[in-house]
Amino acid sequence: MKYIKRSFLPLCASVILMSCVGDLQYNSPFACRFHFDNSIHLNSLMAAAVTPNSNIYLKINTKFAHQITYTVLQTYGGESQEIPMTTEIESYGKNELGGNNQLILGYNTLDEKIVAYDGMCRFCYEQSNRYTNLTLISSFEAKCPRCNKVYNLMMSGISDDDNPTQLWQYHVSAPNPYGIISISR
Fold first, then answer.
1. Which partner from 11, 85, 87, 120 sits 20 to 30 angstroms from 68, CA to CA?
2. DSSP string spanning the chain?
3. Which residue in 103, 79, 124, 122 sits closest to 174, CA to CA?
């Protein structure tokens, strides 16, 4: 009985401490709020980005023109689409896409989950407070044009160099590729 009490107390203490730490994987200092209703838009690029084993990562940003907010999707191959955000869930409030209005969305086959990274170079931001957007250079890599760091999107967004840096990640909810896709901090 004494043994059970002694092992139970440390277990309770560790559970309490772990609950205070929070989820370090999603630790971006930037706001992120994005909703895309693919049941209305029926966008094949967006659907492919959240489909298992599709090997498609998208750069997502927004632009405002003619009093309408557009979501701009761009693939590694350069294909680009602009979709007007007209549904209530998409247009309610303001979309915030991380540090510099850009996200990278795709399915990580290694971790078997949908991931959304901040599309800004974390290294440049932390070293010199510069907001530099990344460029997709392959179907699973993003490169910073300023510092030349290459981030492997299939390896949790970690750079492949002597000073590894990991991209900030956001929560993704996409129960169905042709449903509502939400990204948040």
1. 120
2. -HHHHHHHHHHHHHHHHHHHH--GGG--SS-EEEEEEHHHH--HHHHHHTSTT---EEEEEEEEETTEEEEEEE-TT--EEEEE--SHHHHSS--EEGGGT-EEEEEETTTTEEEEEESB-HHHHHHH----B-EE-SSSEEE-TTT--EEEGGGTTEESSSS--B--EEEEE-SSTTSEEEEE-
3. 103
pLDDT of residue 169: 95
State what percent of residues in the chain have pLDDT above 90. Answer: 63
Q: List, in order, residues 6 or more apart from 101 with CB less than 8 Å away.
A: 61, 62
State the Cα–Cα distance between residues 111 and 42, nearest whole angstrom: 26
> Distance between CA atoms of 90 and 36, rounded to whole angstroms?
6
Contact between residue 174 and residue 114 where contact means Cβ atoms under 8 Å apart? yes
Contacts of 42 (CB under 8 A, 6+ apart): 178
* Residues 163, 88: Cα–Cα separation, whole Å: 44
What's the whole-number average pLDDT of the chain? 85
Pick from 2, 162, 183, 143: which is nearest to 153 by CA? Answer: 143
Question: What six digits make up the tokens of 101?
Answer: 């209005």
Q: pLDDT tens digits for 9-57?
A: 333 333 333 333 345 567 789 999 999 999 999 999 999 999 998 889 9
